[in-house]
Amino acid sequence: MRRAACRAHSWAIGCAKNKVAALAEVGDAAAAAALGRETSDRSARVLGDAHILTISLRAGPALDLSVLGADHPHSRNILERHRPYRDFEPEPQPS
Question: Which 3 state secondary structure label does DSSP give 81?
C-alpha cells in the first residue's frame, strides 16, 4: 500500500486503522494505542476532523468493552462484527 499510495491517502489511513485493530486483537495494547494516536492525528491533518476515519479512530478507545459493557449497542456491533460505515470514503450525501 505504501508504494501504491502515500501515507496521507485515505486508503493508507484505513489500512493503519485496521492494523490498530489487529495489534489489539493479538494483545499488543501498547503498540495499538501508539499507532492509533499517530493515525488519528494523521487522519485529522489530512482528511479533517469530520471524516469518518478520523471520527472512528478517535472513538475507538471510547468503545472499550469494559467501560460500555457487553449489552451496549456499540459493543454488540463490535462483537457481531457489524460495520455501520464504509472504511475509506465518507457516505454519499443526498443532493
Answer: coil
